[in-house]
Amino acid sequence: MTKIIVDSTCDFSLEEAEKAGLTMLSLHVRFGDEEFLDKRTITNEEFYKKLIVSNELPSTALVSAGEFLEAYENIPDDDIIVITLSSKLSGTYQAAMVAREISGRDNIFVVDSGSASLGTALIVDKALELKDSLSAKELYGTLKKYVARLRIVGVVDTLKYLVKGGRLSAISGTVGGLLGIKPMLLIKNGDIINIGKPRGIDNAVKQLDEMLRFRMKIDRREEIIFAHADNETGLEKLIKAVGRPKNSRIMSIGSVVGTHTGPGVICAAFFEHPLVGNRISNN
Fold it and tell me: From the CB of residue 92, how many other CB atoms can be counted at a distance below 10 Å?
């Protein structure tokens, strides 16, 4: 039997994780002297309420190697698949690998999702779908192929948090804010690529709709996930424009990713079709 361990940035709720039989380890979120465990001692709704009124950007901390090692020891007899957020975004993947080495076990397989939140959730859903039909080693190899095809396209509502986090200069943030720019981002292979600068949320939804329906080579046989960061209204506009496939679900972006993007994000995660390449320029 194969057991699956995930970190909380997959943005399953505790109830969803328990129902699916997942072991979920929480990243840490700090507002000044207050520290919370993602999903356990702070909900997504509580997080965004605190984020909006906070003068300083909260900080986040990875799941430690010790926490992973304890989780491994609690599953002594079964094979283990571990799925983490992108190694380019956090040291959580490395911590899982360190714990694997310390354990001395060869039946633990660590998957770098190359993503976070809804993207990681797609990989977790695929692992749950296939875990009873493949060995852990086979599942690991299959999931890596899906990671290579994983894409997220989304729109950031405000530049404020990108400036606070040092990902955008204060001058660019001020100018972009005055112009009402809503950066459109593509995430693939762990890289974040700016693919558009629409002005205003309506234009952003229109361009995102165009991307998803005409420019992205989506494998529509696979699940699609739509998500938002405290912006159900914006996501409703996007889904109304795009249409909601039967093999899709909606989720909320949690505190760790929300720390860096801020509230208002709307996005979609999907697998690129294996027979065609993405034609969007990286410029």
Answer: 29
Write down the pLDDT at residue 159.
63
- 240, 238, 152: which is closest to 202 by C-alpha? 238
What is the C-alpha separation between 149 and 154, in angstroms, rounded?
17
- Neighbour count for residue 82 (Cβ, 10 Å): 26
| Whole-number pLDDT of residue 164 | 55
The C-alpha atoms of residue 17 and residue 128 are separated, in whole angstroms, by: 11
Question: What are the Cα distances from residue 58, in Å, to 24, 91, 256?
Answer: 22, 17, 9
Tell me, what amino acid is at 234? G
The pTM score is 0.90
d(CA 211, CA 142): 27
Note whether 253 and 227 are within 8 A (CB): yes
- Give every strand in the sheet of 184-188, ordered side by side: 191-196, 184-188, 150-155, 266-271, 224-228, 248-252
Write out pLDDT tens, residues 111-156: 999 999 999 999 999 999 999 999 999 999 999 999 999 999 999 8
CA atoms of 256 and 252, how far apart (whole Å) = 12
Nearest CA to 126 among 244, 18, 238, 221? 221
Phi then psi for 115, rounded to 5 degrees? Answer: -155, -165
- Read out DSSP for 96-124? HHHHHHHHT-SSEEEEE-SS-THHHHHHH
C-alpha to C-alpha distances, 145 to 134, 138, 139, 140, 268, nearest whole angstrom: 14, 11, 10, 9, 19
Can you tell me whether residue 219 is helix, strand or coil? coil
Q: Which residues pair with 196 in a beta bridge?
A: 184
Return the H-helix or E-strand segment holding 126: helix 118-130
